[in-house]
Design a protein that fits this description.
This protein has 121 residues and is an alpha+beta fold. The longest helix has 11 residues. It has one domain.
Length: 121
């Protein structure tokens, strides 16, 4: 596997990555820290793996169509076996951690011209 997000679930320890430019697809970018901890005790189907994702993602605002930053927060404990590439899992966790409606946290941060057009329609 050529991905930098590969872990060996048979070896206990902590893995840290900073996800920045080049990782994103439908998201414009961001700065997200990923912490993966492989525990000593296994679950029923493999090793216990804790995943924690914190940071911000840059997306297009659904309201004004300008770029905005939204917080991303996700944590989960799952069971994996053997060597696992977490790249797709991390990406999907970030996307699913974003709100369904992606808008600036305040309308004051939106493009004022677009807000005026919406309000006058």
């Amino acid at each position: 596997m050529n991905s930098p997000y590969v872990i060996d679930c048979g070896t206990a320890g902590e893995h840290r990555w900073r996800v920045t430019e080049g990782f994103w697809d439908e998201i414009l970018g961001g700065d997200v820290e990923v912490v993966v901890t492989v525990g000593d005790e296994g679950g029923e189907s493999g090793e216990r793996v804790s995943v924690s994702i914190e940071g911000t993602a840059r997306v297009i605002c659904d309201r004004c169509l300008e770029e905005c930053e939204l917080p991303v927060s996700f944590s989960e404990t799952v069971d994996f076996k053997g060597e696992v590439d977490l790249e797709e899992y991390i990406f999907e966790s970030i996307v699913l951690g974003l709100p369904f409606q992606r808008v600036h946290l305040s309308t004051n941060d939106c493009n004022p011209d677009m807000i005026n057009r919406i309000c006058s329609a």
